[in-house]
């Protein structure tokens, strides 16, 4: 195996170990269905709606997928992104993927794309948000920026 493949295997193993730990902390088990949902989000590399998840994992019953998402969200494994469309979208919690990112959200179709900021801009944003939080004795843990507009397909 190449080093890239070995690194990817380690990340996936760590992801599953962290998901299982978070679930156990909530008194839940890391079932086959939970694992399939986590793998689908990991492989997608972008937020998915429930219908998109079901297209990727045809072996999952809709009710099982709903239950798994609810349990995973409650344990902090999955994060819900609400858009103006009929379906919320979900993604793995950033702390599990070690991939800090922000979102472009289309207000028309609800499509969500991840984007990252240059390191210097991310640092400046962190400092500005820290100052804002300090004014009201707020202790920030993280931040997320949603850029809302209209995507190229809808404009």
Could you name the key traits of this structure?
50% helix; three-stranded antiparallel beta sheet; three-stranded mixed beta sheet; 6 strands; globular; alpha+beta; 15% strand; 6 helices; 155 residues; Dna Ligase, domain 1; Arc Repressor Mutant, subunit A
Write a short abstract of this structure.
This protein is an alpha+beta fold and 155 residues long. It contains six helices and six strands; from the N terminus they run H-H-E-H-H-E-E-H-E-E-H-E.
Describe this structure in words.
- The protein has 155 residues and is an alpha+beta fold.
- It has two domains: 1-99, Winged helix-like DNA-binding domain superfamily/Winged helix DNA-binding domain (Arc Repressor Mutant, subunit A, Orthogonal Bundle), CATH 1.10.10; 100-155, Dna Ligase, domain 1.
- Helix content is 50%, strand content 15%.
- The protein is built from six helices and six strands.
- It has helices spanning 3-25, 32-44, 50-56, 62-74, 94-97, 119-135; strands at residues 48-49, 78-81, 89-92, 102-106, 112-115, 146-149.
- The chain has a three-stranded antiparallel sheet with strand order 1-3-2. Strands 5-4-6 form a three-stranded mixed sheet, with no helix packed on it.
- The longest helix is centred in the first third of the chain and has 23 residues, at 3-25.
- It is globular and about 45 Å long.
- It starts with a helix and ends in a 6-residue tail after the last strand.
- Residues 5-11 have low confidence and may be disordered.
């Amino acid at each position: 195996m190449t080093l890239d493949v070995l690194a990817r295997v380690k990340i996936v193993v760590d992801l599953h170990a962290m998901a299982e730990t978070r679930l156990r902390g909530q008194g839940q088990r890391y079932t086959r269905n939970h694992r399939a949902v986590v793998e689908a989000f990991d492989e997608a590399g972008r937020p998915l709606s429930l219908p998109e998840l079901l297209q990727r994992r045809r072996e999952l019953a809709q009710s099982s997928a709903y239950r798994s998402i609810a349990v995973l969200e409650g344990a902090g494994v999955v994060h819900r992104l609400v858009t103006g469309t009929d379906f919320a979208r979900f993604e793995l919690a950033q702390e599990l993927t070690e991939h800090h990112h922000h979102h472009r959200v289309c207000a028309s179709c609800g499509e969500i794309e991840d984007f990252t900021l240059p390191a210097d801009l991310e640092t400046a944003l962190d400092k500005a948000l820290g100052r804002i939080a300090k004014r009201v004795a707020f202790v920030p843990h993280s931040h997320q920026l949603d850029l809302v507009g209209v995507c190229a397909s809808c404009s």
